[in-house]
Amino acid sequence: MADALLGPAEIRELAARLGVTPTKKLGQNFLHDPNTIRRIVTAAGLTADDVALEVGPGLGSLTLGLVGAVRHVHAIEIDPRLAAALPGTVTAAHLTVHNADAMHVRGADFDPPPTMLVANLPYNVAVPVVLHLLAELPTLRGGLVMVQKEVADRLVAGPGSKVYGVPSVKLAWYAHARSAGKVPPAVFWPVPNVDSGLVAFTRHDPPAGADRREVFAVVDAAFAQRRKTLRAALSGWAGGAAQAENVLVAAGVSPQARGESLTVEQFAAIAAAAKLSPSGGKLSPSERHRRRGGLVTTEEPEFVNNELQIGDDTP
Ligand code: SAM
What we know:
The chain has 2 domains: 8-203, Vaccinia Virus protein VP39 (Rossmann fold); 212-308, rRNA adenine dimethylase, C-terminal domain (Helicase, Ruva Protein, domain 3, Orthogonal Bundle), CATH 1.10.8.100. Helix content is 37%, strand content 16%. It has 13 helices and 9 strands. The strands form 2 sheets. A 7-stranded mixed sheet has the order 4-3-2-5-6-9-7, sandwiched between helices. Strands 1-8 form a two-stranded antiparallel sheet. Helix 8 packs across helix 12. It binds S-adenosylmethionine.
């Protein structure tokens, strides 16, 4: 890591020079602690051959750490002032700045293709951004992201945990996730009023024989009423409680179980059983529409769940 990292004085000076006043709306809390940057870069497990994707480089604190560790860095920044200023702070030739919304980028936007996502994410869109990038960029082999601590706990939770929910199952579809530690508010400017957590993840193959959108529709339905048994919670999705029970039994899942006890493989088995059942099982609105011969919208139902709705399925 040859480049000088940014401390508190440099961050303040840079922000003043660029006329940047951090906004809450864009989750602008900038890292000003070189030790935390080094910790993130080390915990990410990068190799010199990796191509890092950073969402929200901000003033460039983490970007400076990343350019010293990998062969290329793509930095996606939604704020045009910050995107324009970044090449002045991080002068590396192997940095590409994308002034874009990370929720809307596509695989074709990146050359070379990213292999690792490493980011101090904007907290209000952290979960949908991670899920969008994993869906859109199959070349990502893993990553390390900093998110609000409660969201980190939720992303790494397994079945049976009281914080296991939609983000946990959907991330488990793509990857194995684990906690890589906690980060205190003092390392940011401005200081946020929440703790932060690091989540490391490694991509794995998704469960075989199931379609992601169909599985995610079951997950959404199961957790929309997480205190109910699956027989009840999935009745709307399946077209009735009896149909839900048939599909659950066919999938080898107890109709009396609750969504919070199921693995992603069990959710996949339910979606697969629904396709084989006489009623076909009820599907997500877009899939229902497609089967009726209509157009499929590009709106992905799984991306509506982000950490701002953290209270929605908390027990
Ligand atoms: N990486 C920097 C650091 O650690 O100091 C800044 C991190 S700050 C928590 C989040 C950054 O994400 C901000 O620079 C913000 O402008 C940017 N951002 C917010 N929403 C975004 C989006 N949808 N797409 C891309 N960047 C976004």
